[in-house]
Amino acid sequence: MGRESQTLTVLRELSHSHADIRVDPRGGTASDRRRTDVDTYLRQQRQILNKGLADLSRLAAAGDLNDVELTGAGFTVTPHKALFPDIAKSLKAKIESRLPAIRITDLLLEVDARTGFSNAFSHLCSCRAADNKLALLTAILADGINLGLTRMAAVSPGITMRQLVWAHD
Predict the structure, then answer these.
(1) Cα separation of 36 and 66, whole Å?
(2) Where along the chain do its domains lie?
(3) Quick one: pLDDT at residue 77?
């Protein structure tokens, strides 16, 4: 059994053995009260959602939705250009000129050295920690930017597809 499975098992056992059986002065257990609180919360959220949808329908029927075009096939929302003041553009250029150019994987390695982030990952089958942190972080980056392991291996010098696949598992 892997470390994660053992941890989940222990947590389940603890939660069952320490179930809240205190009696609420209003009757029932604290668990019953929490259930009622959840039901009340969900009912209130449904009411808010239904009111918002009713308002949206009313505005759509009246043609009062700004920058939204309704058609029989659906709707289109007019995109807005980002407001980027000229002063911000000049500050951006000044700031970028002072920052060193750095590869994202180098930044991830530096953050990992300070936080131990990569220690939270282990191989799916063997439960071993990654020997090659660069491969692990590159695989995480490939997932994060939706690049895929094959393309990431092609653009990552010193990292092979095999290393990425092992780290990904």
Answers:
(1) 40
(2) 3-77, 86-168
(3) 84
